[in-house]
Amino acid sequence: MDFGPYLMLAMLEGAVMAAVLALTASGLSLVFGVMRVVNVAHGEFYMLGAVVAWFVAQHVGGGPAIGFVAALILAPLLVGGLAALADMTILKRIDYDPERTIVATIGLLYVIQQVALMTYGPNAQPVEPPFNQRIALPWLEWGDGGLAIYFPWGLSTTSYKLFVIIAAVAVILAVWLLMSRSKAGLIMRATQLDGEMATAFGIPVERVYAAVFGIGAGLAALAGVLIVPIQQAHYLMGGDALLLSFIVVIIGGLGSLPGTIVAAVLIGMSDGIISVFFSPTLAKIIATLLVALVLVFRPQGLFGARAR
Amino acid sequence: MTKSSDRLITPNRRSVLKTLGVAGAATALPLWARYTHAQTAEPIRIGFQKHATGIGAAYGRWYERTSVAAVEKINAEGGINGRMVELVTEDDGTDPKRGAEVLEKFANQSNCDIAFGTLFSHVVIGSAPRAGELKLPYFVVSEGHHVASGMLNRWTLQPGITDVKSQIQAMAPFITDTLGKKVTMIFPDFAFGYDHRDNLTPAIEKAGGEVLAQIAIPPTETSFTKYFPKIPRDTEVIYHVMVGPAVLTFVKELGEFFGPSAPQLFGFIDSLEAVDMSSPGLEFLDGSYFWEGNPRYLQPDAPDYVKAYRDAVGIDANGASVSDPKDVSTSAHMFGCWETLHVIKAGMEASGYASTADRQKLVEAVEAMSEMEAGAAHPQGPKLFNGKTHQVFGQQYISKVEGGKLMVQHTASIDDTLYPDEVDYTSMSF
User: Fold this and answer.
1) In this predicted model, what pLDDT tens digit does every residue of A84-131 receive, in sequence order?
2) CATH architecture, domain B40-163+334-394
3) Matching CATH number, A3-297, of 2.40.10, 1.20.120, 3.40.50, 1.10.3470
4) With 0-12 CB in 10 A as exposed, 13-18 as middle and 19+ as buried, what is A149?
5) Where is the Leucine-binding protein domain (chain B) (predicted)?
6) pLDDT tens, position by position, A45-96
């Protein structure tokens, strides 16, 4: 394949990955930003989103489009509800103590994973995309008669992959509007800045925490629903998602939404490009190395504020 | 210290009751479990190393169903040497480390006579040395070349399924004659894939073709489009063999990548074992070719013993479970469990196997085998066992996807699959 079309294909693949990663990581970042909780079970919420999507698509009749739309609504709600419940029954009881929440969420990770294995089973299951046209992309070339358009072999994407990118951008815009322009966002930011003071002003901090934990998990679940027609739902799929989300959040700065987005695009695109031109293993090595460099030279992340 | 050891030897009321309870339960066992006319009342225990979880889960499910069906058949026909057979199933998580632990458990805790049933090559390679140390006969159903290559030991045998090297050797002339001379291969980046990588190139070259590129993909990969640009432009045939939960994604993305202008495709059915041929995204495979160890779809000319085997395992004419048409079998591999269990039976009968003390005699008896006739014990076809390399040889099938079904086009004979011995296990000590 020529270099130009090759690079374009790599960037398209990278963009899909960046989109999904941005959604998952912004959930993780939101939870950390507001609650100062490191949620190790975050990847499992992503997996649950995919599994619930498969389940809903199986049980809702009327074609793949209706099943998918139902999954898009139900999965984040169900998973978010489950996460809020976990917050109220577990995290609240241990006072959001940093060390203990890490251990508790590790436990949650195993519980969710094993329950998925016991109920959903060890197989990977596909979900049919609501629409999936192959789009061959043209490329420009200097030929004998000047600029000519041709369709290189293999340079293509699908309408569904483009939809994933657009949907992710829309959801992240919505999250940003929620955080910066709404009363709920104001309350969350107040809680983030100073929980005690927020309590003094009559903000129900505990309910805010439950809601934030639920929204964070819901974002991961939404990413899971979006990815499942491209990949497949599998009970172990949360591991990679968790690792990459942490990489993104650390590079972007824990708790910073813009930083998370920039880092997701950086990691997603570089992963796409490096794994196309070199090897996927090298892409992971470089991403992890980047984390180490950020931790050494800029521990608060690219966009993070210094700890007060 | 003294106190605790006192407690160990002094029976209290509860432990006595427990022992009585166990004894009571034992008397309630079916008749055959307590008494037969053989020297010992104990059943023969076959430790079944099952890929119940991990990337081999679909195979594990069907390996178990096939093994259970074979054991039922053997028991209904009077067992082995008058003793019933019992499968002791343990999950190895498709993980080499756990595989070795499972063998340990078979030998030391559950008193198994032998171990059996492993498919994934990394688990076999991880477990076999332990089988050698435990002196436990280890019958693998793996199709990897690691047995015949001499990498393992005298206790590890593969008498029920052919190995990758012989399969590839039999496929190469068909690929170059029918599909094209310039081949690009895509394979999983671990031992099973390396068997394909190392054996396909010489086989294709011998058949007058050329391998243009070899693309290795990590077994846990979930997205594949990024690998496809490495396929050279002048490729005439893509040879693909993938395993694991993401195979469907692999085939789907391959279709999306090429669109209407795809080169010829030749795949090992491993890419689609346990996958419904009518799954969304697989339409583009229509007209492509697959190697099959054993045909998934019931062929029009299938003999009665094949039908009997399929009925016993519980698969319909489409190779799916009779109780759930969406639950597609791993037909091209699982027959190996059935055949291996029948070889074990023949070996135990030939050696007069009575107890774990006869394990060495069992291995020697299997090593002495050679021709096996097609029939109820060998439904996939006739076999030729090589006692020196511990590997069996058999027919291979090439099928074409026609209207969403795999129809056999060509059957390669046993002679096409033979190659010179690479090891003589019989010269090794036990």
Assistant:
1) 999 999 999 998 888 899 999 999 999 999 999 889 888 788 888 888
2) 3-Layer(aba) Sandwich (3.40)
3) 1.10.3470
4) exposed
5) 43-404
6) 999 999 999 999 888 877 888 989 999 999 999 999 999 999 999 999 998 8
Cβ separation A153–B52 shorter than 8 A: no
Give the other-Cβ count within 10 Å of A293's Cβ. Answer: 11
The verdict on a CB contact (< 8 Å) between A123 and B57 is: yes
- pLDDT (tens digit, 9 = 90+) per residue, B210-220? 999 999 888 77
Smallest Cβ–Cβ distance between A231 and the set B52, B223, B229 belongs to B223
Contacts of B54 in chain A (CB under 8 A): 122
Taking an 8 Å cut-off on Cβ atoms, the answer to whether B248 and A234 are in contact is no
Cβ <8 Å between B218 and A276:
no
Contact B223 A121 (CB under 8 A): no
What is the tens place of the pLDDT at every residue in B265-299? Answer: 999 988 788 888 887 778 888 889 999 999 999 99
Q: How much of chain B exceeds pLDDT 70, in percent?
A: 90
Burial of B301 (0-12, 13-18, 19+ CB in 10 A): exposed
Residues in A closer than 8 angstroms to B58, CB to CB, are 122-123
Assessment of whether the complete model's pTM goes beyond 0.80? no
| Helix and strand numbers, DSSP H then E, in chain B | 13, 17
ipTM entry? 0.77
Residues of chain B with CATH 3.40.50.2300: 40-163+334-394, 164-300+395-417
The partner residue sitting opposite B221, judged by closest CB among A128, A136, A280, is A280
CB contact under 8 A, B218 and A121: no
For chain A, list the strands marked E by DSSP.
134-136, 139-143, 146-150, 156-158
Distance from CA of A236 to the nearest CA of B (A): 8
Tokens, residue B108: 């030391």
CATH for B164-300+395-417, options being 3.40.50.2300, 3.50.50.60, 3.40.1350.10, 3.40.50.10490: 3.40.50.2300
Q: Cα–Cα distance between B107 and B47 in angstroms, integer?
A: 9
